[in-house]
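Ticket #4471: structure output looks truncated?

Reporter: J.K.
Steps to reproduce: submitted the chain below (178 residues) through the standard prediction queue, then opened the result file.
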Amino acid sequence: MKKILYPAVALLVLVTAAFTFITAQNWKINNGYSVKFEGKYADGAFESMKGMVVFDEKDLAAAKFDVQIDVASINTGNGLKNRHARSEKWFDAEKYPYIHFVSSEVVKTATGYDAKGTLDMHGIKKPFTIPFTFVRNGDKGVFHGEFKVNRGDFGITTPRGDESDYTHLTVTVPVTAK
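Returned output as attached by the reporter:
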C-alpha cells in the first residue's frame, strides 16, 4: 500500500506545482499611466483610470482586462472645453460616469496582441478590439496601445451634428506584478 501511496502523493504534488506555475499573472496598474486622445475638436487626456489586469504572454486564454476610465477626469487644457466635454452635450459624465472596457479574448498578432471585448461608452455597448504591446521587465511591465474610436458609434455628436469623428487614443499603462 505504501509503495502505491508515495508515488501517488508525489504525482499530486507535481501536478499541483505545475498548475501553480502556469497561472496567469495579475498586475497592479501603477501611477504614471496615460490615456491621451486627439480628435477633430479637442485633444487632451483622461486622468483617472482603474481596473483589473490579468495577463501572461504564455497563457492568453486566462488573460482578462476590466478597465474603467472616469469621464469627469477629462482634461483638454481648457476649462471651458472640459466643462463642455463633461456636459450632456458630449460625454454626459453625470449620467455616464465611466468608459468601461471588458475583454472576452486576447489573441497574439504579428505586432503584439489584440484584446477583444466590449466597450461601454455613453450608455452604449459595442464589440471592440484594442491592439496593444506588452514589454515585461522582471516584476514590472508596460502595456501600450494606439487605436481609434468613432464617437458617433456611441451616440456622441457635436453641436454641428456630425457623428463620424474618429478620436485617436494612445494608452500607456505601467504595471507591477501582484
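Triage note (M.O.): checked the attachment and the full C-alpha cell line is present. The longest strand covers residues 124-137.
Status: closed, working as intended.
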